[in-house]
Amino acid sequence: KAGVTQTPRYLIKTRGQQVTLSCSPISGHRSVSWYQQTPGQGLQFLFEYFSETQRNKGNFPGRFSGRQFSNSRSEMNVSTLELGDSALYLCASRRRTGGEVTDTQYFGPGTRLTVL
Amino acid sequence: QKEVEQDPGPLSVPEGAIVSLNCTYSNSAFQYFMWYRQYSRKGPELLMYTYSSGNKEDGRFTAQVDKSSKYISLFIRDSQPSDSATYLCAMNTGFQKLVFGTGTRLLVSP
To answer: Is 90 exceeded by the pLDDT of residue A40?
Structure first.
């Protein structure tokens, strides 16, 4: 079974630009979560989508948004990029929403975003 | 202060050593405790999880939770170079999203 895939793997943007990241979950998984990983803050939850609806949201500004399509694929968008947005953006999928402990989430390899 | 604290390392050990990785936390409501392993250029993968206090063993890995001290540990016996990775602890109350530590980088030299 194919794992979670994320595209692109690396991205370089400049301040003020916007960026869209893509995630394809494991087949059969309907929940997709996005995380930002930085050395100082670690892994921080951005949002979770299930059945095309945002189910949970972390403490990030409105510049960070996402969506999920009917085939469970998800995109994440960051507008008006800032230097502090440089990070590894990870996507994780699971079969359903909730069940943080009983329903293992599987992470993709991430998209490394650098903002200059 | 962060809810979950983890020493970033790096922790360097020779092959065969016993490794101890630790996290402290401040939220006494946390009940579920997990350890993830993240190799370079990969996403985290779940290693083990424990509920409440006590120990759990899986092969060379042992997870330990001390709720009275708000302290969790992951022990790796007979460490191998293939264990070189970043280890992240994560925890939650059972109803919220997981709260992750920043990760400890482990280097096991042959």
So the answer is: no
